[in-house]
Amino acid sequence: MHAVSDVYPCKSVRIGISLSLSLSLSLSLSLSLSLSLSLSLSLSLWLMATVSSYQPWKSEFSKMSDRKEPTSISCTASLPMLWKEYFRDPSQWWDNRSRKVHPGYPDFKHKGTKQCLWIDNPCTPSWVTAELSRRSMETPLPARPVICDDCTAFVVSLRACAKSKDLRKGSLIHEEILRKGLVDQCSDALITMYAKCGALVKAQELLDIHSSRNAYTWTAMITAYAQHKQARDALRCFEHMQLAGLSPDAVTFACVLNACSSVQDIDKGRKIHAEIIRQGLIGDDVVLGNALLDMYAKCGALSTAQYLLQWLPSRDVVSWNALISGYTLLGQGEQALRCFEQMQIEGFSPTSVTFTCILEACGSIGALEKGEEVFYEIAKQELFENNIVLGTATVDMFAKCGALSKAQQVFQNLPSRDVVSWNALIAGYAAQGQGNQALECFAKMQQEGISANEVTYSCILDACGSLGALDKGTEVHHEITRQNLLQTNIVLSTAVVDMYVKCGAFQSAEQVVEELPLQAVAPWNSLITGYARQGQSDQALKCFKLMIHRGINPDAVTFTGVLNACSHLGLTDEGLMHFMSMKKIYNVKPDIGHYTCMIDLFGRSGQLDKAMEVIKEMPPGEDLAVWSALLGACQKWGDVNVGKRAFEHSVELSQNDAAAYALMANIYATASLYNDAEKVEV
DNA sequence: ATAGGGTTAG
């Protein structure tokens, strides 16, 4: 209710004012707050009608001031207020006089509310005229005499190209503009067109040459960078904009916040937040508030996001969606579901976006029942029509919950499918170990003429690996190479290596790793742990040395493989050396798995006292498994002394560890210490 | 032609 009856009509009213200049701010605000829904709506509709027929450059002002109702009221009521606001703090207003190419173009525009002022407005009261004259502003600067029709036509066409993302046509217009020598007048429209069509280099080039003085143009550039996953460039562009002396407004800030979330730069985001508060922009802009909330949510600061949701002056369903998506992104599906309930209690109806997020949340925590419930609701509201994203999210939810027949069923009933929908299904089959089903889907997808992408290949390689389908896997690898996909995609590269490893084709795996254009640890890990798993420990260590030689930094996974290999080969000293270097040289924090490896390593050679030294360094907490492993080793070697201490630690950490009691009793018994054994068993 | 540039999702 809140969103529909309050926020949006209010927004329409505001737009109406800035365009028509004909209603008073105070009047319209109080109207939108106090009137009923239908009245606000009809008011804004009326305003829109007025706006569309209103053409200030045809000197409509005189006609309007002659009218009786309701414009005559607002004309006298609103202007003085706006001028008062302008005189109070001119820095809150854009001064557009130097860019004025037409009398209809406003002389001043408020940075936050977008309200406009014309110096030569006939309704302007005399005290304002006096004040203007005192400030030597009694006449507007002469409009730039370039009211050239060519220019106008070009700008209009460029805008159309921008809207339809027609880069080809836009470039042709650019050529035409160059021929006529009108680039200077059209540069802003050109930059915006290139930016919107994704021709970022071209847009930036023109921006550099023409050093635009237009904040809208800069914002278009920033947005284009952010939308093309070049958030760093977006932020850099924002810096340049400020260095050029242009002030960002609410829209600019919203775009920049978007860029901050892409690069997870919460500090930058906080600074922007402070600036937004300083400029008082939050109050009347839901979108800006939502962008802010989304930034905190995407950067993982969910408590701040939650707090914002509570205190934002205006919020809508998008605010809730941003919060829910944040929880989902962080894997906190339960929290996401809780928000979903809460938003409905507060009277917001979920949208397709809400449902999409919630489905993902259900999939991530395996909440099949809730997911199914949401699915029926979506079907009931007929939201699956023309919404591939929502359909795919449903398939994905069922697949992630392991309900593959259900996933298949939904998939078949989708009104349309794309590569992502297919991927959801294929990934589901691959993850459940149903490799043949995955391959079957892959074939069907190609029959339907839909080309695979990196994600598809990655899933299919996974399926090939689990099936040991070397031929199919090799075929896919060659296709990937043909498409040059290994140049940029580490995940895919690792999938290729992993496929060869799982098929036991280690030579091919090694060859791929050696020839990869990207330096990354993951493909090497796949190879090393693969060798270690296969018992080919010497090969694992050989690869590790090669990798270090290539200057690639090992991570926690690498060392798990390496320590396992050392353990199997009985290389106690080398294992200890790697264990030390992982902390000291490579700054990798050992986890439980590494400690267990070390126990295993020393345990095999009977050096249980050394094993204990290693464990003692462990940070206290989750170390029960490690003490149990040590106790097991003690049983094997009949080491009563170390065993006793391992037993004490095990018991201390877990009061009822039956296995530990049994092991200890066994150790005593083996050492013929039957009295002690009996005591333990009691 | 007198605005233009913005938030949430597989």
Automatic annotation (TrEMBL):
The keyword Metal-binding does not apply. GO terms for biological process: RNA modification. It comes from Ceratopteris richardii. Keywords: Membrane, Repeat, Transmembrane, Transmembrane helix. PPR repeats lie at residues 214-248, 316-350, 418-452, 453-487, 520-554, 591-621. The lineage of its organism: Eukaryota, Viridiplantae, Streptophyta, Embryophyta, Tracheophyta. InterPro entries: PPR_At4g14850-like_plant (IPR046960), PPR_rpt (IPR002885), TPR-like_helical_dom_sf (IPR011990). One of its GO terms (molecular function) is RNA binding. The chain crosses the membrane at residues 21-49. It holds the Pfam family PPR_1. PROSITE patterns: PPR. This is Pentatricopeptide repeat-containing protein. The keyword Metal-binding does not apply.
